[in-house]
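Throughout this chapter, every protein is written as a compact record of paired, labelled lines. An example of such a record is reproduced below:
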Amino acid sequence: MKPYLKWIAISVGSVVAIAHIGVLGHLIRRQPERIQVPTINIPRGTPYSSYKIESGKDGYTIEYKANDPAILESQRSLHLDQDKKGLFGRKFEQRREWRRDQYTAEGVRNIGGTLTSDDEGKSVLSAECIAADAGARSQGAMAGSAIATGVAVPAVMNIPYVGWLAAGWVSLLGNNVGSAAGSMVNSAISDC
């Protein structure tokens, strides 16, 4: 082999060897690809806040409840013992009450229905007021229809061509006016 070919082979071999060592060093030192986790700014709310965060390949979702639990519950029970004998042989009864109350996080007791604007604690739309108003409207509508039918319908029936139509209108008007009057009378009497 000729001497210059020997030096070319050693030079090429050395360059290839150094390149392989450099590539191996680069592969060994290379950092694995890191997944970038997003920075999530969780809203700050009341002390009773709850969060639910779900993440996946497509992104993430956040569910936030500001006042969780919104309703707190308290339970009490009632037990009645009548067979107890007290001092000097007299019977007495011992009662223990069971009661379930709901409270908001601020400690306000839920009494059902909506509260008045000045929060007196009176229920504006209690079941009794709704039932009384419905009955008063029904009774007022019947009375208004009866009065309109007895008084005004015979007078408007004699109108040529449209008398039958005007009689229906008068009857409906009496029904509506009677319903409104019954509701006003009920609100004045029952304080609802």
Notes: Residues 115-122 have pLDDT under 50 and may be disordered. The CA atoms of residues 4 and 152 lie 132 Å apart. Residues 127-190 form one domain. The two ends are 119 Å apart (CA to CA).
